[in-house]
Amino acid sequence: MSTGARLSTGGLDTVHGVILYLEDITVSFDGFKALNNLTLDIDVGELRCIIGPNGAGKTTMMDVITGKTRPASGRAFFGQTMDLTSLSEAQIAHQGIGRKFQRPTVFENHSVFENLELAMKTDKRVLPTLFSRLGGEQLDRIAQTLDLIRLGALAGTPAGLLSHGQKQWLEIGMLLMQEPRLLLLDEPVAGMTDAETERTGELLNELRGKHSLMVVEHDMDFVAQIAGQGKVTVLHEGSVLAEGSMAAVQSDPRVIEVYLGR
Ligand SMILES: Nc1ncnc2c1ncn2[C@@H]1O[C@H](COP(=O)(O)OP(=O)(O)OP(=O)(O)O)[C@@H](O)[C@H]1O
Predict the structure, then answer these.
(1) Which among 117, 216, 240, 256 counts the fewest CB atoms within 10 Å?
(2) How many whole angstroms from 58 Cα to the centroid of ligand 1?
């Protein structure tokens, strides 16, 4: 894929346009295979939606990518050559894989602006001890992110006063401040109002092509909104059951069976 070079893959070898390649990953819990020879790849700049019934292995997959869970077998390539299964959680985070959990974890007593500023200062490339005041470029980045997450008017508001949806957007903004090479979002619209869900879809659509994203979500209307022409992967019993456009997977009899057969 030609967009690889201008995306934030900084230094990672993505010469074939693939940011993540899971190869034959198996995770066993007391003999039960939560992931069963899972193979999946994601392109640089792609927004990949992952769906699947409860217990399909979606969370376990993200745990493997972020180093929280070690697979019994298989490899997880970040770019062409880096095998994540040999790295610690901290090393993986440092390599630029950001993860957003379902519950927002913003600093409630700090303003929206300060939350973004703090997120940037955890970026190892910024040297907070040398530059105690923000430079113009950093202020620009914060302003751009405020715009993107539509919280510009609330920049001075303590994060604790935001709605649930606004907190989720702020947390996405905080992750973006660290310029992740790959962003994993776990059920980003859980608990949101319809209007917030719609707005989150617009936000993620704006990130498509500029960032590489994996979004796990149960809300099918939302997945339809963000999948666009992109691929949706259906997990079932720890493996890929189907993959393709939203329309294709929705009309796939095997997918209908696992959703309706429960
Ligand atoms: N630490 C664990 N010990 C034992 N079994 C586990 C553990 N973690 C997950 N499992 C099992 O592995 C399977 C996959 O779980 P996982 O949470 O990855 O699925 P999921 O697709 O994220 O489901 P949901 O949509 O409900 O969040 C489930 O059957 C779950 O009970």
Answers:
(1) 256
(2) 8
- CA angle at residue 44 from 181 to 178, to 5 degrees? 15
Atom 24 of ligand 1: nearest residue by CA position? 54
Q: Which CATH superfamily is domain 2-260 in?
A: P-loop containing nucleotide triphosphate hydrolases (3.40.50.300)
Pairing, β 73-78 against β 47-51:
unpaired
Say if ligand 1 is within 6 A of residue 209 CB: no
Q: Which amino acid is at 70?
A: R
Query: Is the C-beta atom of 57 inside 6 A of ligand 1?
Result: yes
Kindly list the averaged pLDDT for each block of 10 residues, start to end, along the chain of length 262: 49 82 96 96 96 94 96 94 93 92 87 92 55 74 94 97 95 93 94 94 93 92 91 96 94 89 58
Residue 127 CB partners (closer than 8 Å, separation 6+)? none
Task: Answer whether 60 contacts ligand 1 (Cβ < 6 A).
Answer: yes
Domains of the chain, residue spans: 2-260
**DSSP letter assigned to residue 56:** S
Which residues have C-beta within 8 Å of that of residue 100, sequence separation ≥ 6? 168, 171, 172, 175, 183, 184, 185, 186, 188
34 Cβ below 6 A of ligand 1: yes
In this prediction, residue 16 carries a pLDDT of: 77
Rounded CA-CA distance 134/117 in Å is 9
